[in-house]
Design brief:
InterPro entries (chains A, B, C, D): Citrate_synth-like_lrg_a-sub, Citrate_synth-like_sm_a-sub, Citrate_synthase, Citrate_synthase_sf
Organism (chains A, B, C, D): Arthrobacter sunyaminii
EC number (chains A, B, C, D): 2.3.3.16
Helix content of chain A: 40-55%
Keywords (chains A, B, C, D): Lyase, Transferase
Oligomer: homotetramer
Number of strands of chain A: 5
Pathway (chains A, B, C, D): Carbohydrate metabolism; tricarboxylic acid cycle
Largest sheet of chain A: 3 strands, antiparallel
Shape of chain A: globular
Largest interface: A-B, 92 and 92 residues
Amino acid sequence: MERSDWWKTSISDISPGVIRYHGYPVEQLIAAPEVGMATMAWLLTRGELPSVPQARLLERALVAGVDHGPQAPSIAIARMAMTCGVGINNAMASATNVLGDVHGGAGQELMEIFATILQDPRPLPETVAAEIARLRAENKYVPGFGHRFHPVDPRREPLVAAVTQAREDGVVEGRVLEAALEIERQINEGRQRPIPMNIDGATAIIYAELGFAPVLGRGLFILSRSIGALAHAWEESNSGARNKGPEHRTILPDYVGPAPRDVP
Amino acid sequence: MERSDWWKTSISDISPGVIRYHGYPVEQLIAAPEVGMATMAWLLTRGELPSVPQARLLERALVAGVDHGPQAPSIAIARMAMTCGVGINNAMASATNVLGDVHGGAGQELMEIFATILQDPRPLPETVAAEIARLRAENKYVPGFGHRFHPVDPRREPLVAAVTQAREDGVVEGRVLEAALEIERQINEGRQRPIPMNIDGATAIIYAELGFAPVLGRGLFILSRSIGALAHAWEESNSGARNKGPEHRTILPDYVGPAPRDVP
Amino acid sequence: MERSDWWKTSISDISPGVIRYHGYPVEQLIAAPEVGMATMAWLLTRGELPSVPQARLLERALVAGVDHGPQAPSIAIARMAMTCGVGINNAMASATNVLGDVHGGAGQELMEIFATILQDPRPLPETVAAEIARLRAENKYVPGFGHRFHPVDPRREPLVAAVTQAREDGVVEGRVLEAALEIERQINEGRQRPIPMNIDGATAIIYAELGFAPVLGRGLFILSRSIGALAHAWEESNSGARNKGPEHRTILPDYVGPAPRDVP
Amino acid sequence: MERSDWWKTSISDISPGVIRYHGYPVEQLIAAPEVGMATMAWLLTRGELPSVPQARLLERALVAGVDHGPQAPSIAIARMAMTCGVGINNAMASATNVLGDVHGGAGQELMEIFATILQDPRPLPETVAAEIARLRAENKYVPGFGHRFHPVDPRREPLVAAVTQAREDGVVEGRVLEAALEIERQINEGRQRPIPMNIDGATAIIYAELGFAPVLGRGLFILSRSIGALAHAWEESNSGARNKGPEHRTILPDYVGPAPRDVP
């Protein structure tokens, strides 16, 4: 066995009979009852084990994001893929692949805004007002707030409760939570129809409070949503459908191009 | 809001202000401390909540499969992708996409073999012998046993211990475990260099004991390995490499085709 | 510069200042006016340059398969992907990814049937009858025949004409064509509503007559359909839609799972 | 059959027995000998048929980009994928998926720079100097120039010759060509080791001269490179390798993380 530094890594140390993640032997991690998926996601991306309360808070966010049904492009794609004669790996990959800047990126974007706000020396209300003004000047919404059909997102309340409790228990500082609530307050000022914090916003608070980099925020959401992709791919594969299109077979797309013409 | 049965599902029930998975409200699931990623994977794919010991056993298998370093094609691909200027969703999808019949399918295949063995009325040693003979006649290895460089897979021991304990606690029946150990015994009979049960074999026992369908075995492995893909993608993105090829830039592939010739 | 045989290839010979494909210098291929995409696809996969008439016949099949609108899952997926905030590479990959055994594999399957038929020493009608009987016994349709809404596939006629002409010109032998027409004749015998040869069937004739392996038949279809994926991805990206689901936002999927219940 | 405008398109008009692309019947396009892949790529993305000389010039660029061997991440990934037990669609998709901003985006970026330069009212040398200065101030290279190991890119000469000829024949205006040559002249001024125009640069000239939008530049490159992905996937699938990693099995990645430690 030779070693090469072209693929060097600090994540896993593999040699015959040995597997360690950031130094910890895999057999001890498997045997430790308090080590779960959230712990492993933390260890592998951060290099250290979280405390048990940190892992528990992270897990709340991961549980919250697993699915939002086949109206989401990712989930519809997982289901369509299964009807095209591919493996479940392909269907899950096809779903994950579209969790891009628009479908999966709101939380990541909000985490970047949190970072900007927290580094600003001005009082919080002033900083938040400036940041909202900047976004509006660029014709952008504040990411993580508002939902196209949930007037109140049912996931907001229990997630905010979990992070509030964690702050009381000294698990997190609570500065991101405070910033998020101030954003929510300001964008709702004087409005009749409220703009509630949504799942992307509420999970971004937790990921940021726990010290994850914004890109990892998107990665964690993907881990979570992979469960929904798996479940929907599996359900669809049992339907017997073949080459399932987006709408029922009897519905054709409107054609809005040029009238029939001959090739010259 | 209209409803259409083209995308009908029993997984998630979404309406304004409401999200329920197989009937359970998302806000209760988020708030329940014993509900983690393993529980959600079970609920969404199976339709019912697992008991706490069932979820714990499942989580042992999920923890065990998170990573095996960049020599695995999936992980190398996640890292290469990040150096090509794509988002982390793309890198994670690219990794998942190749967890096909060869890279991700051994466990699934073994689960199918378990099902065959358990339905056979003959005594276990006889059934197992017949199944091994069948595979050898088709020039196939028994999937889930042997590893190209681990003489003993360090993940086997703690996983077998976990499922043995679960059998003692009445969480699982233990018939799959028994079959797996009988396979291991028979294929090692009279050998000097042992063929140990590997990660695919040991996790397949757990998934099968818990009643998962074989295809879901692969899906669960993908959930697990997604953590490694995320961590490696993130690590590589911090390296500054651009268009990272499989081997160092100074190493060109051998060319073994025709000698130089002119286009006629 | 070192060479390694881990990535050895007979396709491209790359060294500083030099690029040759199967021996032919890239600069000559670029400069040769008769060398187009079809020629390059042939050269890279087969190792030799096609004759000009061979390349022309191949190109007829490639032209025929470029698109069948957004009701096809691949094309709908390319369009959805673009609304999720990903690059055009991701959208095109997402489309290609689902061209699996069901969505992209009929031609490949038919090419395997052609190979079986052509190796059979019996008279053609007898061999074809046996093969159709075998498929029906396995409860399968003959791949490449019939279309869910085209009573006559408009691509059949010009493709069959092209291969017929090529046989008359001595470009191909015509044995596959003969077999395909015999299949079409037999499966339509005594039927009121005809089962016409479809695009998969008609292009499979050309690919097989030209000597491509069945797997390459699927690969060539993918090259062709990539043009449609690109065009639809581009069109959708100009629509301004965000997270476009399969059906209009006002249409929710039917929920068919358990009634609301509490987490125990 | 109903029509819905959720998936409306101007590309393909599909109804029973009818397929038209931007108004042209598919059967006429298949039957027209001068209509090839380049023509179809133009028609589907632009809405009109190119002239024969326009299609020929486009095809020169498409021929030039088909492959650069397995040192390119895209091609290595296509090959690795095939050893993991997936279909050729998956391997081709996995290759395409990583043709992102870094691996596939240089041409697109250069096309945007061309657009900026051509809209500038100042004399060309002045505009080009300003644009180069801007890129250098941002610590960026001019995309499309220089190659990590070709001192001269063998594809530059025949591509520049083709577009020069097209300008002489009145097929293109030649303003982009002029700008590109001025960039090449200025960045090489006073240098000992020249920075040549590379494939991304030379094909970007052609795509821009022909009026393609920058994003389509990347899309066209993907169509071209898909041929290489197909050929390499096919070649590797015939190798019998399983789970082929980036480097030979005997070479392990360097581990650079924490020393062995126990789970607390």
